[in-house]
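Weekly modeling sync, notes
Attendees: AB, CL, MP (scribe)

Item 1: holo prediction request
CL wants a bound-state model with 2-oxoglutaric acid before deciding which constructs to order. AB pointed out that an apo prediction alone won't tell us much about the pocket. Agreed to run with the ligand included and paste results into these notes for async review.

Input as submitted:
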Amino acid sequence: MSNNPQDWPEPIIRVQSVSESCVDGIPGRYIKPPSDRPSTGTGFTLGDDANIPIIDLGGTEHDPVARASKYREILQACTEWGFFQIVNHGVDPDLMDKARETWRQFFHLPMELKQQHANSPKTYEGYGSRLGIEKGAILDWSDYYFLHYLPLSLKDHNKWPAQPPSCREVFDEYGRELVKLCGRLMKILSLNLGLEEDLLQNAFGGEDIGTCLRVNFYPKCPRPELTLGLSSHSDPGGMTLLLPDDQVPGLQVRKCNNWITVKPATHAFIVNIGDQIQVLSNAIYKSVEHRVIVNSDKERVSLALFYNPKSNIPIEPMKELVTQERPALYPPMTFDEYRLYIRLKGPRGKSQVESLKSPR
Ligand SMILES: O=C(O)CCC(=O)C(=O)O
């Protein structure tokens, strides 16, 4: 397998087209081994009403007591769950709805238009239907669109869809707002590690961070019990802000060896810690496995904005968090090197960050 693949190992088939043509079966390429199928739970059951923490960010500006209590909730979520939802986060709910609906419209454009943006594994930018380049791999039940927002040197409107006409404008605004929100969360995460508020952002490369968007489209699936919309993985980047579908649940987060289906709160973002923050925090914060299930009567759209460190600087546990009792758990690696793994092999649970751990 080359480290610089130029093309996919086999012709790309759009899952949306497969979904439209199959009535009660799905092609073998999408059938997961029994241990990976949605119904497979292990360990004890946490109950159907279990959910990731929901944290209200409103009202913290002028109230130090409320602020301290919210920050503690965030600390607990980052160390115990790796996931939480935020409400009253300051992003206009209309913009959130508009962003999701604009992308939904994109996926409902005629196939010839979407195909003009077909991506390749060289940069992944554009319209895609698989992660990883292993020939014959079992595939996930989803299509996606991937694009860069930052750094500006990678942002290229020509690689964003031209249709629907508002797409570029809406995502420009959406990206700007979410980068601001990520900056705010980074400060909280830094303070919660007992560090000055800018230290985590500085370890990301300061202003030179990367931000990209993956819009996931999960078509209806006649046999949802046999497949996954997205296989289990932890996010390779820094932090993810996910705008889930407001009508259709699907995201599952691993907790105590079981899978919790996230119930999205109205106009919430789902925040999760990625591998780079797990590494920088010397594993105080957890990057947690998650996956997506699909269903037979509703399509689903989600927008994952990935906030990543500058891609060519070494990422390693921050020196303030390394002590004799808690030596550095990971060797330095740039994000460019790190993300090759998922780009070549596709989503594989937490195998990458686990395999990095230095022997102690
Ligand atoms: O669709 C979702 O809810 C989750 C998407 C996701 O995990 C991802 O894009 O990495």
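Recorded for review: The two ends are 31 Å apart (CA to CA).
Action items: CL to compare against the apo run; MP to circulate these notes.
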